[in-house]
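Is this the right way to post structure tokens for a design question? Let me know if I should format differently. Anyway, here goes:
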């Protein structure tokens, strides 16, 4: 039986440590700004210029392979370019936010305790192994989800404010983005965090855990490349299908991680 008070105390402790670290907080601010403000602003303000659009790797192929009917009828080439990037091209990119946030916060979850020499005290608390894993996971998942949701709200305001005049009215969000934000973001954040916590438990330095955490971004990059090359379109059906698969994967991965992290093993690696 999991004691919520013990798990909550661990989560609050980790949050206090995160907020005191400038090295952690700085990228947590920069990453959302990049994807929620800078990139969409650049696309809307300059992306309707054919010369600029052609300079974006894979963008020309992406536009050429767009299925019919995914862009509202009557749009000019410039309007189509802006709409396609904001609604479709950026969709998988947005999933990088919870993955990167989780990689920054979760990579120091256990190995950070080792470096600060606080792990022994933590391991001798009444926390069970399962509560320890759950607390470390939640301490990273919750900020990753909240930052991604806040980024989505900012993204929505930016693209509608700047893109509304270009596209003759409000056009965002779409149902695909609703699924991404409400389902895929939490599921991706949870999966990334579980895997990174598992790596953190076996690493001896935060840098080593972060290096391994970068590999978790690769599947998201694969989706970006697949869409840019015309192999798939990240639409509502794909988002729903991915959400269903991730529900199963998340459940299995958490069970495996919670079953493999043991305080005795961590103590022997100190």
């Amino acid at each position: 039986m999991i004691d919520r008070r013990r798990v909550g105390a661990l989560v609050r402790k980790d949050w206090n440590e995160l907020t005191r670290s400038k090295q952690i907080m700085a990228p947590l601010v920069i990453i959302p700004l990049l994807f929620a403000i800078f990139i969409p602003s650049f696309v809307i303000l300059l992306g309707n210029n054919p010369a600029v659009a052609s300079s974006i790797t894979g963008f020309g192929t992406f536009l050429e392979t767009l299925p019919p009917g995914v862009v509202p009828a009557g749009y000019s080439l410039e309007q189509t370019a802006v709409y396609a990037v904001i609604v479709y091209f950026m969709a998988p990119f947005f999933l990088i936010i919870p993955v990167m946030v989780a990689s920054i916060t979760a990579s120091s979850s256990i190995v950070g305790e080792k470096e600060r020499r606080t792990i022994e005290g933590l391991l001798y608390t009444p926390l069970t192994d399962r509560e320890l894993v759950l607390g470390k996971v939640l301490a990273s998942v919750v900020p990753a989800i909240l930052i991604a949701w806040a980024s989505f709200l900012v993204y929505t305001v930016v693209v509608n404010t700047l893109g509304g005049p270009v596209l003759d009215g409000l056009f965002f969000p779409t149902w695909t983005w609703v699924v991404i934000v409400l389902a895929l973001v939490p599921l991706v954040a949870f999966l990334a965090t579980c895997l990174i916590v598992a790596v953190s438990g076996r690493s001896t330095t935060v840098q080593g855990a972060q290096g391994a955490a970068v590999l978790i971004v690769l599947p998201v990059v694969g989706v970006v490349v697949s869409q840019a090359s015309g192999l798939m379109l990240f639409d509502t059906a794909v988002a729903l299908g991915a959400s269903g698969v991730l529900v199963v994967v998340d459940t299995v991965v958490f069970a495996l991680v919670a079953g493999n992290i043991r305080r005795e093993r961590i103590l022997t690696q100190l």
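Format looks fine. Someone answered above. Worth noting: The chain has 14 helices and no strands. The CA atoms of residues 162 and 256 lie 46 Å apart.
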